[in-house]
Design goal:
Elements (H helix, E strand, L loop, with lengths): L4 E5 L6 H15 L2 E7 L12 H4 L4 H20 L6 E6 L3 H8 L5 E5 L13 H7 L4 E4 L10 E6 L3 H15 L3 E8 L4 H16 L6 E7 L4 H11 L4 E5 L2 E4 L2 E4 L1 H9 L3 E5 L1
Parallel strand pairs: 1-2, 1-4, 2-3, 4-5, 6-7, 6-9, 7-8, 9-12
Antiparallel strand pairs: 5-12, 10-11
Helix pairs in contact: 1-3, 4-5, 8-9
Length: about 270
């Protein structure tokens, strides 16, 4: 198993170059093709996909935005020239919709959590994108330019989302030196929990992953905070977890752990729905 194609969403603004640098390093590690992607639309633009003939009629702000997309492309290609297979895509559209359309081309998608407030255009809705992408998403917190994945924490829960996340993280786990398997459990279920974790350890071992350390944590209080604490105590640079959420009356509702990891994790998170 490997990542043959990695896509990175390049924000217009301060964070984009950092995310591109991290994604380029990953592409180099896996000898993968790298696709850069950016999208933007003025906040006052009607909800439609602009055709080239229509761009001429848009406002002066829109023309500057088109120019900024072009500058972002040039910077991305200049910063990734050492990657043998690199390409660029862009959309004059709302970022979330544009990136969802392009997700079909990639095995792994890298996005940042931060948005540059000086760029007055709609930003990527990271939470909705993760739940709709159908691909594993590497969420990068502010200030991270390199993925330290020699030690990886897997936040296990015996669900479809968690199983997908572990399977899709196998290429990263194969290159790690140690995997820390952690599950939250109720009092009295410790032995059953460890049995489940042994099954996960066996699955990973048959894919060339190991060694694994197994933990259970009490299913009380803030599970996400406990996962982050264990990850930091163990020196992990990446958290792998399922992403949980659904729509309710047209609004997205997220599981508590997912919401906390999306908002506050200081570590990179590989999330899958």
């Amino acid at each position: 198993m490997t990542y043959a194609t990695i896509m990175v969403y390049v924000e217009l603004g301060r964070g984009g170059a950092k995310h591109a640098k991290l994604a380029a390093d990953l592409a180099s590690r896996y000898e993968a093709a790298l696709i850069g992607m950016a999208a933007a639309v003025p906040t006052d633009m009607p909800v439609f996909q602009a055709r080239p003939s229509e761009i001429l009629t848009l406002t002066q702000d829109t023309a500057r935005l088109v120019s900024r997309l072009g500058d972002t492309k040039v910077q991305f290609l200049a910063g990734t020239r050492e990657i043998p297979r690199v390409s660029w895509r862009e959309g004059f559209d709302f970022p979330t919709e544009a990136l969802l359309r392009e997700a079909r081309a990639a095995d792994l998608i890298v996005i940042g959590r931060e948005h540059d407030p000086t760029v007055a255009v709609p930003s990527l809705d990271t939470a909705r994108f993760i739940l709709q992408a159908g691909r594993p998403v590497l969420l990068v917190p502010p200030g991270i330019e390199y993925l330290q994945a020699s030690r990886v924490l897997v936040g296990w829960k015996d669900t479809r989302e968690s199983r997908h996340a572990v399977r899709e993280a196998v290429p990263l786990l194969q290159k790690s030196k140690e995997v820390i398997l952690v599950e939250a459990c109720a009092k009295g279920e410790e032995n059953t929990t460890l049995e489940r974790l042994r099954d996960v350890e066996g699955y990973l071992g048959r894919h060339g992953v190991g060694p694994c350390t197994k933990y259970y944590i009490n299913d009380i209080g803030d599970t996400a905070a406990e996962l982050i604490r264990v990850a930091q105590d163990e020196g992990a640079g990446l958290i792998v977890a399922g992403a949980y959420g659904h729509t309710r009356l047209g609004e997205w509702a997220f599981g508590g752990v997912t919401r906390e990891l999306l908002s506050n994790s200081p570590l990179c998170c590989l999330l899958s729905h």
